[in-house]
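Appendix B, example 12.
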Amino acid sequence: MTKQPIEIQCAACGKLTLARAEPLYDGFKKTGEAFICTGCGARYASAAETPFASAAPARPHIFSDADKPRPLSIFSDDERQRSCGWCRHFVVNPFSQRCGLSNKATEATDLCARFEKKTSAPDADPPPPPRNV
């Protein structure tokens, strides 16, 4: 089915109705589409013959870009990424998360006074160990 507008101004019934696209086949090969008025059943042989309704008029522009709300800034730049999830002492394993300094169970969103930012990216793979040859 093609992306045609589905509203038509039907020539047979004179109403603004929906059109149903029906594929046309020659054997097993699709050769085109016929459009059928859902109000009265009038058949149009092709998209060129179908009296599609004109596109709806554009919505009035009441608001400008200046009226849009500005993005919220809850934390200042120095407060961002100060949670345990970004700390170099945060230890994650499949069973628990803990602080490497206090050895207490922590969550990634916890805050700590002894925060130290990780030096590498959080998902970076460690370098492979040297191989003895």
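The chain has a mean pLDDT of 82. The chain has two domains: 1-55, 78-117.
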